[in-house]
Amino acid sequence: MPLDHSVIGLEGDPQERSWTAKDTMLYALGVGAGTSELEFTTEKGQRALPTFAVLAAQARGRRFGDFDPAMLVHAEQGFELHRELPPAGSVRTTSKVTGIYDKGSGALVTTEATAVDPETGEPVISSRSSVFIRGEGGFGGERGPRDEWAAPDRAPDHKVTYSTRPEQALIYRLSGDYNPLHSDPDFAARAGFPRPILHGLCTYGVTGRALLHAVAGSDPARFKAMSGRFSSPVFPGESLTVSIWVDGTDVVFRTAKDDGTVVLDRGRAVVA
Q1: CA-closest candidate to residue 253, choices 264, 240, 243, 263
Q2: Catalytic residue among 74, 177, 199, 265
Q3: How far is CA 58 from the centre of its chain?
Q4: For the segment 67-82, what is each residue's pLDDT rounded down to a tens digit?
């Protein structure tokens, strides 16, 4: 069944989401934070990692077609924080599909979400993302906008390497993403992978930690925005190196595995 293009631009019903201090601690552990980051992993002076914004702003959108979920992968993710997230709180979110693009081998579906304070209506998070659905392309549609991102022609200002744990995906999934692609070997094989892969948003969160500590002085209040494109899968247990270039408050980055494979590119961030 082809994807339903009639949903483009239709805003879904507002949905409220709350989170607890335990949720933000568990998320921090899921993206690799540990004993050197106790303000994120314990209640002592607790703060929330900025990339938790992506989870806080998630909302069920309109259904845009029937397809094999094993063929869907996270393609891009970005967010802007209008204020620092508290370790426990709530937002009211509305979302909509903004485009369905023909990439030939598959379809790229883009969405946007806006999360506001339920009491005041003031914006808290602006989020945008896209998914790539293999086998759903070839319908003759637009290919979508091009991004001319390029890394600066110089050595990065910072390089940060973090290891992931063999059980990293099993920890991260407890933050709410129970897609069996990240835990079930049989499902992963059906999707063409030799074993379960790490959640794209886990890779994103590990990268966000590197940016936070390298260019924002480990202060979540200075971390304003982040975006990037997922370009290759990561398997739990692999190490990730984030190369970071800084130009004032603007930051560009990319994340690669030990073998040099880039897994998150076209990265941009904004720090105060």
Answers
A1: 243
A2: 177
A3: 11
A4: 887 788 889 999 999 9
Catalytic residue among 23, 74, 102, 182: 182
E strands within the chain? 15-19, 72-81, 89-102, 106-116, 123-134, 158-163, 223-230, 239-247, 250-257, 262-271
The 10s digit of each residue's pLDDT in 210-250 is 999 999 999 999 999 999 999 999 999 999 999 999 999 99
Clarify whether 158 is annotated catalytic: no
Spatial contact of 61 and 95, defined as CB atoms under 8 Å apart: yes
- Which residues, 6 or more positions from 172, have their beta carbon under 8 angstroms from its beta carbon? 30, 31, 182, 198, 199, 201, 202, 205
Full DSSP string of 60-94:
---------GGGEEEEEEEEEESSPPPSSEEEEEE
11, β-bridge pairs: 96
Neighbours of 135 (CB within 10 A): 11
Q: Residue 5 catalytic?
A: no
Distance CA(11)–CA(73), nearest Å, equals 23
State pTM to two decimals: 0.93
